[in-house]
């Protein structure tokens, strides 16, 4: 339904204002995001490329709308496993946000976090770790230790540490993420339960089977409570 509404709106805006008008491009960007969420990645990529190319020419490479288009294109490339190009576009977006907003701005840190994920998917673990540490440190300072974005950075850092066999530090980060999510979201929130499961895995890697089993049981009981036993 959202796709149909946006397609009709886009057709009207392109007819009235032209395909390269700011309103038409904004509508196109929304439609591209919907297509991505529907799993229609090829079409989403095409739309995001068009929006980025036009905004580059009309608004300039460092305009916020242009950088948003770069972020969107990088994300859909990542979803398709096109990690090399996604990294390139992510770095371009990050450099732009740093120039216009500064290194510690929340929007800049979103790009830092996205780049960290792409680097991890490529197996560039040390680079991913560095980006995740930067995102975590700056989010703690700017947003606070219990902000959802800060807790996401904790979890992302824990994952890349685990990939490198740094299980002790990964466990520490996962405990912090779990404690924060329990405090902010409550013990039965899906993200809290995911953190329980993540911590259980970290404990299992280290041979701490008793505590790992306890965490797995807590996660299972929480999911049965929230989703039902037959989910």
UniProtKB/TrEMBL annotation:
Gene Ontology molecular function: kinesin binding
| InterPro entries found in the cross-reference section | Kinesin_light, TPR-like_helical_dom_sf
Q: Which domain of life is it from?
A: Eukaryota
Is Hydrolase found in the keyword set?
no
| One GO CC annotation | cytoplasm
Q: Which Pfam families match?
A: TPR_10, TPR_12
Compartments, record wording: Cytoplasm
Q: Which UniProt keywords apply?
A: Cytoplasm, Repeat, TPR repeat
What is the name listed in the Swiss-Prot or TrEMBL entry for this protein? Answer: Kinesin light chain
Q: Which organism is it from?
A: Tuber aestivum (summer truffle)
Organism classification: Eukaryota, Fungi, Dikarya, Ascomycota, Pezizomycotina
